[in-house]
Description:
The chain is mainly alpha-helical. It folds into 2 domains: about 160 residues, no CATH class; about 70 residues, no CATH class. The protein contains 11 helices and 5 strands. The strands form 2 sheets. A 3-stranded antiparallel β-sheet has the order 1-2-5, with no helix packed on it. Strands 3-4 form a two-stranded antiparallel ribbon. A hairpin with a 5-residue loop joins strand 1 and strand 2. Helix 1 runs antiparallel to helix 3. The radius of gyration is 28 Å and the shape is elongated.
Amino acid sequence: MQSSDQLRIDTPEQIALELPLAGIGSRFIALALDTLLQTVGYVLIFLVLVFTFPSGGLGEYLRWIPARFLPAIFILLSFCIYWGYFAVFEVIWKGQTPGKRAAKIRVIKESGRPINAYEAIGRNLLRAIDWLPAMYAVGIVCMMLNNKNRRLGDFVAGTVVVHDKPAEEIPSVWSAPANVSASNPITGTVTAEELVLIETYLQRRYDLDLIVRDRTAYEIATRITARTGIQRAPEQSLDDFLESIAKRVRDTAGFH
Length: 256
């Protein structure tokens, strides 16, 4: 199960990673810092255009641009800062902006992989809607209504925001008994597809109806017994039997 403040990722190696989700507080701190830096950028552009452009400096190289175009230039550069700031930093810094880095949070895909340029751009285009009617009201409400603290941009891009710290490893949802031997060469006859079948069942068994679960486990166990010749012990449950087979195969890397 996944708690409301944790993102759980099951790896192919049957190791589950838990990443702490960033809440509204930490994301607001990051946004405040980023907004402050954006504001500094606006002010610097304004000062450069007003005081440097007419009196030399840049004006010596751009004197062909009429002074009446200064407002348009300011609006264009401000537009680039507003729309490009978050996307560019999240692409370059793998899901972080200066504000996110200071708050120690990061944007990642739901699968746990880093975001790419398309996802960075997509999630930030929705900021205009998340901002409405003011102060990210839509975004905050959206974050409060889902258990992964995702705003509209995150839903569009398939991303989440997590605290940027080493992920915790937690036990697999299944584990074979410790006294199972890993040295049985017969398990080498288990194919990769059959191993995937076993592990898929073990991962999803608690989501199945009890009757369907028992029938599925019996069919898989019968197939494995026919393949390997390994018999299930009288006191051993079907799940324990399948767990032991999967552990033997994984420990010996013995499948074809």
